Amino acid sequence: MRTIVSACLASVLALVAGSALAADKEIAVVVKTVNSTFWQNVQKGATAAQKESSGFTMTFQGPAAESAIADQVNMVENAVNRKVAGIVLAPSDPDALVPAIKKAWEAKIPVVLIDSQISDAGKQYYQSFLATDNEKAGELCAKALIDKVGTTGKIAVMSYVAGAGSEIGRVGGFTKYIKANSQLKIVGPFYSQSQMATALNQTTDVLAANADLKGIFGANEPTAIGMGRALAQAGKAGRVVAVGFDGNQDLQGFVKDGTLEAIAVQGSYQMGYLGVQSVVKLATGGKVDKFLDTGVVLVNKANIDQPEAKNVLY
């Protein structure tokens, strides 16, 4: 009887130890929203890295919308409470996520940020930041627009979530370059909250109110898709020079049919892949760089079928 009890106890202890090990080996990936092919491509990269990382599991989460910041904070706090091995986070707000990241730091859980930065108050609480250099990417888009519309006239900026780290750099870089290198008048920015339908309606209104508009910039995936659809519906496709951001199938189609002059495409797969890879390194005692530029490629009709574009399109 004692032998049976001992065996049962050993089995229970093994199960408990196994559960603890599973929690300790979990990598929590928390993105801005799961309802976007951009973030779904990030997930593909993260999954590939997890499969290469022996013994580690992965969870992938994000709010229903990028503007649901409180939901994202809760997801990070829950990951800390689960005592995960590490967190890969794309923060939707530079300030709101700082306390949650601090909790991870206090629990000795490594945090790797992707896509967007947090405020200076939280810089000591994460170990690495992997992203597009959004300011340079914004400049690249501004240059592409100036090359087509010239240096005088009126352009519009269709943005997404005011204050998001990527938005500050991207739209800031775009605006700064336009002001420094042209006399173009900027209408906006208008904030879609990363909702395609909102961007479509906003762009429709902008086109109606500005018959002399020469160019327009859509600063992320859902915003650029809404912008492209509005241009097509208004009969302005190809007549108003449009530059978008990100590279899903809809945006590729707009480049091919001339609705968009170009799209700036980030290495979204790389963000997920390198994010998980970095957390695994940190969780196993390794070191990583504080910042890693995951790059951007300007895709247009001329290069859309070339390897440099195909490597980043999704």
Give a structural overview.
The protein is an alpha/beta fold. The chain folds into two domains: 137 residues, Rossmann fold (3-Layer(aba) Sandwich), CATH 3.40.50.2300; 133 residues, Response regulator (Rossmann fold, 3-Layer(aba) Sandwich). 47% of the residues lie in helices and 18% in strands. The protein contains eleven helices and twelve strands. A six-stranded parallel β-sheet has the order 2-1-3-4-5-11, sandwiched between helices. Strands 7-6-8-9-10-12 form a six-stranded mixed β-sheet, with helices on both faces. The longest helix has 23 residues. The N terminus is likely disordered.
Structural class: alpha/beta
Oligomer: single chain
CATH class of the largest domain: Alpha Beta
- What proportion strand? 15-25%
- Looking at the overall shape, the CATH architecture of the largest domain is 3-Layer(aba) Sandwich
General form: elongated
- CATH level-4 homologous superfamily of the largest domain: Response regulator
- Low-confidence region ranges: 1-22
The helix content, as a percent range, equals 40-55%
Overall residue-averaged pLDDT value: 92
Strand order of the largest sheet: 2-1-3-4-5-11
How do the SSEs run, as a string of H and E? HEHEHEHEEHEHEHEHEHEHEEH
Family: Belongs to the bacterial solute-binding protein 2 family.
Subcellular location: Cell envelope
Signal peptide: 1-22
Pfam family, one: Peripla_BP_4
